[in-house]
Amino acid sequence: MTHIDEAPRPATAVAPAQGRAKKLPGRDRATVIIMVTIPLVLVVLLVWVPALLSVVLSFGKWNGFGDLDTIEWVGVQNYQDIFTIYPAFWPAVQHNLIWLGFLFVFPTVLGMLLAVVLDREMKGSRFYQTAFYMPVVLSLALIGFIWQLFYSRDQGLINQVFHSQVDWYGDPDINLWAVLVATAWRHTGYIMLIYLAGLKGVDASLREAAAVDGASEVKTFFHVIFPVMRPINMVVIVIVVIESLRAFDLVWVINKGRNGLEVIGALVAQNVIGEATRYGFGSALAVIMMLISSIFITIYLRTVFREERNR
Amino acid sequence: MTYETPVATPAPARATPPTRKEGGVLSKRRGTIATVIVALLALAWLFPLLWALVNSFREYDYTQANGYLSFGGWTTSNYEQAWTQGNFGLHMRNSLLITVPAVLLTLWLSSMVAFVLARFSYRFNLALLGVFLAANLLPPQALLIPVFRMFREVPLPYFMSDSGSMLNSFWALILVNTAFQLGFCTFVLSNYMKTLPHEIYESAELDGASVWRQYWQLTMPLVRPALAALATLQVTWVYNEFFWATVLIQQGNKLPVTSALNNLRGQFFTDTNLVAAGSIIVALPVLVVFFALQKQFVSGLTLGSTKG
């Protein structure tokens, strides 16, 4: 029996490309599959599988040297230890939070203001922009070294000028703040760049209309520019949170994240490449990092995808 | 903070005209005040690098005797000493051997995914983009332990790695850097490719061009500006990468130059002028790239935001 009334089913998984139905010939389908699969395998193998394995390992005790069967499964013991008896954990959490707060209060606000000012017709705007974002191309580890020229107890500029004897990187009460100043040096330019890019999306006619209506500069900023920047703000929030969580390079070059510079990222590394390798324990710390960051990754992806759909 | 977060600022769907007006002119008095403040801040921002540059050319003994606020004692010997003592020739070569393949591989792989994402709307397109983008955002420390162990288990022939495994080899760093940077590049490139006119593909199809030809001979030449911008960004990011190099390379002479500085800390931290010279040497390649390709660098960061 012939089904003449049968509707032609979409033969392949290929949905209509941008509104037009199409079917790929076999060879092209293979090409497409290969083009996606190779990169996908790399990302899955080096990011997603390790992420999953971190979760699994976090429930075990393992020194990492023996085979997999030397893992002793201990349930949530690692997490319990981290929260109750690991002396470095709560200071690290506190430091990461201070890091986050500091980045929001100083470099983020300053970077945003700089972007708003530099977005205007101003003599030498190009030069100023360059000055602010030059540190962005330097690595944080290198920035740690450059700021040593200011912070060194015996040879640093600060102590020379003020005839003081402060060991800025060594004193556990202040080294975190010294590090944050150095971080801010780079971060401000980064935030400024993001806002400058975002401000390019502000329709000039909006601003002209506001000017014609006689709105003041401040009013224009809050009623015209700021609303347009709302999606950028969201992205900046995510960036600052994730960067604060990842804090590692600077503290590692200074003292490997000890003595006042504990951050979660450095604790994970200490448990793997230190003298005492505790893979399970380090994994539990890693999972805590992952859980926090996944909240913000979700927010970020939602922002991005909303844009994709609106396209 | 080795991996930058993609600056993917969602912007209104309006295409940015090439000659956009800047954000209007400030009133005169406000303008002057703003200029003075910004100029002073800019000088403050330049100061650390200038200070490093100046002191890298000064004799240690001179600055010890006269303090750093003095003037004089000029020399270039810090550079010679730092270069030999820090073995910078070797480490620069290591950085080159890691950065160039990693950047090329990243651009190639991400352009393929981006092409598929932009050209065909598979149902799982968003999910696929999510897999790549989220990977870019995960803290690398969270993946350290399994990656470290996996690389130790993967044997490599000795002509590829004298450690006999992925651990402690450049291959590990190339692959890890590539895997992490794919998300950002895919995102930017697919956005860029979506702006290409559809008609070119229609006529290509009429001519019977295969998907591969459409990708390689049609799309790739058209996205060259985006590729150039991304290449610039990636070179600076991979060159600056610190975390993975520190944990995956245990043999001092295999470290890329950014991490090698840390290895030299013991010898360097006592002599600030030597630290300055070493820092300038490490900073020089990225600063050269930055100044030579400044336009690319900035447009790379803004590509994600303005949809090409």
TrEMBL record, chain A:
One of its GO terms (biological process) is transmembrane transport. Residues 93-300 form the ABC transmembrane type-1 domain. InterPro entries: ABC_transporter_permease, MetI-like, MetI-like_sf. It is found in: Cell membrane. The chain crosses the membrane at residues 30-53, 97-118, 130-150, 176-199, 220-242, 279-301. It comes from Nocardioides oleivorans. GO terms for cellular component: plasma membrane. It is a multi-pass membrane protein. Keywords: Cell membrane, Membrane, Transmembrane, Transmembrane helix, Transport. This is Sugar ABC transporter permease. Belongs to the binding-protein-dependent transport system permease family. The lineage of its organism: Bacteria, Bacillati, Actinomycetota, Actinomycetes, Propionibacteriales. Its main location: membrane.
TrEMBL record, chain B:
GO terms for cellular component: plasma membrane. It is a multi-pass membrane protein. Its main location: membrane. SUPFAM superfamilies: MetI-like. The keyword Cell membrane applies. PANTHER family: ABC TRANSPORTER PERMEASE PROTEIN MG189-RELATED (PTHR43744:SF12), ABC TRANSPORTER PERMEASE PROTEIN MG189-RELATED-RELATED (PTHR43744). This is Carbohydrate ABC transporter permease. The lineage of its organism: Bacteria, Bacillati, Actinomycetota, Actinomycetes, Propionibacteriales.
